[in-house]
Amino acid sequence: MTLVAEDLEAFAVFARHRNFTHAANELHVSQPALHTRIRKLESRLGARLYLKHGRQLRLTDAGERLAAFANDTKDRAADFLESLDAAPPRPLVLMAGSGAYLYLLGEPIRRILRKGHELRLLTGDASATLAAVRDGSADIGVTALTVPPDDLDCELLAQYPQTLITRADHRLADRRSVKLKDLQDEALVVPPKDRPHRQQLERSLLDHGIRWSVAVEAEGWELLVHFVRLGIGPAVVNGSVRTTGAVRKIPVKDLPPIRYYVVARADRSDRVAELKGMLV
Question: Which of 1, 10, 18, 48 has the fewest C-beta atoms lying within 10 Å of its C-beta?
Answer without folding.
Answer: 1
